[in-house]
Amino acid sequence: MSPTDSLVRPAVRWSLGHALPSTVMRNAARRGDLQGRLVDRRVAHDHAALRAIADEVRSSGPLHRARYALMTAHQPVVREVLTSNDFRTGVFDAGDEGVLGRLGTWAADPAAFGPLSPPSLLVTEPPQHTRYRKLVTRVFSVRAVEGLRERTQQVADELLDDLEAQARPGDGPVDLVERYCALLPVTVIAEILGVPAGERDRVLAFGAAAAPSLDLGLGYAEFRRVERALAGFRAWLAEHLAGLREHPGDDLMSQLVAAREDGVGLSDAELEATAGLVLAAGFETTVNLLSNGIVLLTEHPDELARLRADPSLWSTAVDEVLRVDPPVLLTGRVARRDTEVAGVAVRRGSVVTCLLAGANRDPAVFADPDRFDVGRANARDHVSFSAGRHYCLGAALARMEGEVGLRTVLDRFPDLALERGARRRPTRILRGWETLPARLGV
């Protein structure tokens, strides 16, 4: 690659992935387009505004025709799109013949690494995806995740021991995101990846830097920081995986390195992509689940009292948090061929935006959908983990960490009170808290 190309191609990648979409959506929002309004940063975390958009989308039928995409907030239609073989993930496909498709192919970095770069499970399709996911799912099984519960509980207890030991009368509030919600999942992820204790701060830094790669509308400087962070993590990971091959441990990553199907294991690129996905997606979404859950439960003391009276409701409560305030606002699919969804014709190449937060409050599925109910019988029918072949690989892990993490902090500090100054993340697609000041009541 020439020096000029090395400067121009990143700028093109950023333009296609962030600058162009956010500019187009801003302009569309000014004209009242629902999709444009949906990804406006001022709207993305405003529950009332999101609810109004979802209701409007839903009222126009199974699929709403926005300026640049079809949209749906009907839970059954979202499931139909996400499970259909007529749709694929990703914006650009190798077969795209349009100007943007050709430009995207030219600008692509063959060494690109991240949760949205091939061969990540998020953007691969059958038959590669089928073989790949089968091996990964065998290792990251529900049983394997449950085996991590005791260690997750230990980590949560240790983090809260530190918080309590440092809390003194008269001290200011502590930031629960920085001191707990972020540290719990990254510690668990580091152990899943077999990372030595001395290198876990490095993994935390990688996770924090890589997480924005899942969002839309990054500025150029942040986009390049994310690319550099991911490249640094990949370089570190290559050495780490080589070490696991020579000296495997009992961690899940060592098991994945050794996994075989008909004598064939995952390639180095697939192993690296899986580790990157576990880090970026598992870190960011679980931080958001924990922070969103703390806010919801402290805002609904009667529901928190129900949990204290009946701890068997905790697993349902985590799904209700995921339903009411999901860590991811929306996802999209592209039609691979002319098809039909809920009786509506969809042309090849059409984008369908699935409004996960809206589908989670579909009144045809969830009675009194705006009510937070930790005993809701069908809370698990939410689509916050997507559906179909791209159903979240870490769903069982997130549920377990959410249950352990939320129950432990709220049991340890029954008088925990949130303070003024809480701030949402400045992201469009990812939904969580950047800071969450609280007094522990000790």
UniProtKB/TrEMBL annotation:
This is Cytochrome P450 140. Keywords: Heme, Iron, Metal-binding, Monooxygenase, Oxidoreductase. InterPro entries: Cyt_P450, Cyt_P450_CS. Its EC number is 1.14.-.-. Belongs to the cytochrome P450 family. PANTHER family: BIOTIN BIOSYNTHESIS CYTOCHROME P450, P450, PUTATIVE (EUROFUNG)-RELATED. The lineage of its organism: Bacteria, Bacillati, Actinomycetota, Actinomycetes, Propionibacteriales. GO terms for molecular function: oxidoreductase activity.
